[in-house]
Amino acid sequence: MASLAGLLQLQGHRITGSDKAAYPPMSDLLRALGIAVMEPYAATNLDPLPDLVVIGNALSRGNPEIERVLDERIPFTSMAALLHDEFIRGRSSLVVAGTHGKTTTTSMLAWIFQTAASEVSALEPSFLIGGVAENFGTSFQLRPTRTFIVEGDEYDTAFFDKGPKFLHYFPDALILTHVEFDHADIYAGLEAVKTAFKRLVNLVPRRGLILAYDGSDNVTECVARAFCPVENYGFSDTANWRLRNLRYETGASSQLMRWEVWHSGALWSDFEMALAGEHNALNATAAAALAATQGIGVESIRTALASFKSVKRRLEVRARIAGVTVVEDFAHHPTAIRETLRAVRSIYSRARLWAILEPRSNTLRRKVLAVELIESLRLADRVVLAGVFQQERIPEAERLHPEEVVSALNEAGTPAQLLADADAIVDAVAPRVEPGDLIVILSNGGFDGIYEKLPARLRARFPDSAAGTMHT
Question: Does domain 2-74 have CATH number 3.40.50.720?
Fold first, then answer.
């Protein structure tokens, strides 16, 4: 929604907005754009009366602004529908979808096109991403060129349109990264999730292309009846775009991930990137492969990936204090947690790894993937769980019980603790960490300011190391 607001402002519209509680990085982005966010929701926020109200998918009947919109028949639409009608229609739509990795992969694809545009200006992309891409410093861009790159979200569109947002984007080419059960509040089970992705695949025209991850039976099933060519990427020897020889090399001041990509049985290129994790190598390979099919040369792709920074809140280093490193990651699913912890293990192999998790997403707040969550958290050396975010909103029979997760972890030999909130966690963790420790904070929300509170407490504990320790 914040990204769409920025795009509309570029078109000359006057934008106002409301939220229950905005938080970074999008609140910072809106502030920089001069777009005021009114908090909390109130019917008077619609004064003076707007020409159009864009309603996000987090809102439902009973919201005071929605009630006024309906009572007074103020014109309204959804984010996804307006994005298509105002920006995607008439352009080449490149969509990145999947349960995991879509924000990072979309950012990589946009940066590849931007890098290639230094030689061919027509390649400069318009884009909308569900996070702030650090290479751009923003989550959106609008150019008078043909390519529009968009992150395709499988979450529903609005209270009046319960279909996935990505069905509005009509991809000319599609990357499909993963298909797993997620969004337990709107999908009854894995079959329902697969049906949504199959419908997306069915929108790709015969002249289009799908790049599909070959390490998932669910992805393979979803693309099986595509009407367009399908090329797959992954580590298997049958992949059209095959990753090989993935390794890490430590330089004087940084660590690089390097790998090769083989195309149709022959070495296509080698790549390097300052990100870690097998999942990021897969994301980069998907973006590289799609860019190549759109006419971008391999040298531009290599240059772009080598200079790719990351996305805000994805393995973002928030502080380094007295040898303690604090990392933030936008965790929303047990698989995402597993891959994040695996990635930081590859970089900080000797560190004692703390995982601090707030179960906040609609999936993590439910017990449906509790076993998978426990297995993912076992990759850490120490685990701290916060209380489930707004647990009272989850039906009793569906709720995750974090005390059971903590008990299972302790029984399996991973020390774990349940603490009520961010303040309690800071009070408990800050005195116990030691130089060389790595703290990974996992949440898809603001987590009550823990990203600032914990570094502040560490600086107070280690005052001689306080200066110049923040890194974002």
Answer: yes
